[in-house]
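Q: Hi! First time doing this. I have a protein sequence and I read that you can turn it into a structure. Is that right? Here it is:
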Amino acid sequence: MTPEALRNHYPHTEHQTYLNHAAVSPMSRPVREAIDAYVGERHGADPEAPVENFESFLPVIQETKDRVATVLGTESSRVEFVPNTSAGLNVLARGLDWEEGDRIAVPDGAFPTNVYPFLNLENQGVAVDFVPTDEGAYTVEDVADTLRSETRLLSVSWVHFLSGFRADLEALGALCEEHGVIFCVDAIQGLGALQVDVEATGIDFLTAGGHKWLMAAQGVGVLYCDEALQGHLRPPTGWLHGPVDWEHLDDYDLTFHDDARRFRTGTLNSVGVAALHAALGLYLDAGPEWCEERVLRLSKALADELSDRGLPRYGTDAPTHASGIVTVAPDAPEALFEHLKEHGITGAVRNQKLRLAPTYYNNYEDLRTVVDAIDSFVR
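A: Yes, that's right. Below is the predicted 3D structure, encoded as structure tokens:
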């Protein structure tokens, strides 16, 4: 697939420059078509379409899990759907049997999603230790210095929501293995833009929503759980956490699936799954390696252009920690944000900083549009 052919799947590019993929992403034509097709069946206007399409949709559910597993470097049996990142993290936070005195390490300045589920354990005597960071950046040594003998869990954002700092997952995984600490990753700001291999990096638990870099829909996400950790988690219960005996629904045999399906409590967001299925199909067709290389190349080019105009990047410039997020701290971030909007450019303001986040369908003409608009703002 050529970059031009890929870009044609995103009709908004004909009239706006969208650089806010770290918040919510536009849907491609294949994603909209998948949603329309699913809704069309449930709508029932076609006499041949099954309104009750549970059985016919099962292959799409399985193929979506297969695609997620391919992206994560694992088996589909280790993958399950969740409504969002917070729901995924709560599976872990509420599923472990915590003891008073247990501790959890989290880098400070993390997005609240990766903090509140663990702070909520304080009433059980669990303490949260914050790894010190500098504009979202930290070293493996900083994490090692924060770990204690009572630390049971390290939970990090793969990519910091504001600075774009990309954590060294392989080194952190090795550190956690050395200290016998569970390694959890909030992957929402990386998955779909950057590559990861959960098994090679020693990640025990990972979760992400689908509406940012995966470019699917809100209300659907994924989790990965290592088989060894699964045995230590008390799963939430619903009615789909285990085999369903349709002939004896009132026998109440509390049995869980032996794979990640045990974390499924009830009816899935099937529209969201259809969207994720199509989004992952397009991503895999484009090629994850190519997508990552292009995201990093575009974000670096944008950061360099902004730096040349007296807007240095907020966060580290180290290539090993780069991501698709480029954040700067102008004197008047809200005014600059509004100026960009007037020029058809969508970014975001977070913590009084301007955040821009290009992805792989963007091109250098998009970056030139941004730079020209910033030049006109300065003038």
